[in-house]
Amino acid sequence: MTVDPLLLVSGHVEGVVRVLTVPDGTEVHRLTGRHLSEHAGFLALPGGRVACVDDRRGELLVLDPFGGALVAAAVPVAVPAEHLAADPSGRLLAVTTGVGRNAGPWSDLVTVVDLATGDAARVRTRVGEPGVTVLGGEDPLVVLRHREPGALAVHRFADLLGAPPGCPPAVPHAQLPLPADGHGDAHDPYDGTVFAATGEGVHRARREGGTLAAEPVIPWGSPARGWYLRLDPVRRTLWSTLRGGPPDPLRWPEWTNQAWCHEPGTGRTTLTDLGPGLVFRLALTRDHTAFTRVHPDGDELVLLGSDGGVRRVPLPAMDGAPRRGGTPWEGVQRRAVAASPGADWVAVTRGGHGEVHLVDARSGREAARLRLDTGLRHGGHVVLRTRSDGAEGDPVGR
Which InterPro entries does this entry report, sorted A to Z (predicted)? Predict the structure, then answer.
């Protein structure tokens, strides 16, 4: 029997998915010809499973790294996948579409899936890369976060799943207005609150029957703003990275970054400086929150302890990393970061080198460096799971 934890490494450019033991790096599963959506990411499901989307084949995959066969289910969905979310039970999923390799949003398709029955349906909503959350209960709801104009659009899951063939338009039965610059979504199954990040702060809405009721906006408490939200389901805190500084992406080394942490139960918000450069996604261990910071003067892993301590771990440079005078996104290597709330390990990729650094968050020391047989171009994507870490308490793909 395979022991916990396991690391899933997606080389989305090369089309390879690996499952490795931690920390020794033994490969226990491999899929080839699978190009997973890096933007939609991995969605934690109960039992240590994860969901993801193969953007080339147009399939929602349910992967069971602790099972005998890695692919537990494969369901056709519309692509390119932009966002992925589940209801708190992990049974009902929704996938939205985005830009893909195009200059602007062009697809208005949303797919909903019932994993218990295998039923799926596609509907048309609005072009514009919507975010998504799925609220559970006797009458589950799909909430789409739209931009330009901004709105939280509420659909009954049963209505979408029961739509006839031909991808018919789906009209929301309720909407809440949002600013037009929304980017970043979270859902707390504890009380059913939906969160959406905008320039003015984090908008909150709670379910009232088949609709949503707005609650006061949570301010960022900084001139900067967050473009990403993540729920820590164990400590029940909401996280983001606030990016400030010059808006010109060519001046990205001057961007400022702050870790933003909000406690919904107390209303308390804390800010921690992370340093200049590029910081985006984060990962959650048992007692730490992990960020990677990319900068021409040196990259690092930043670990924020639940006790308030900050530890900085230098990372070796990447060939093809973002440079001064260029943007931090186009034609460059990147880093992905993963952790499990049931373990103390942090995994960080070294894009273009086919390496994964495994760091013990308790000590800040690199315990192992896994070397793969493909380069992990663009940094790949990673997720770390144990069978019972509770990560599924954050029901939005990361």
Answer: Quino_amine_DH_bsu
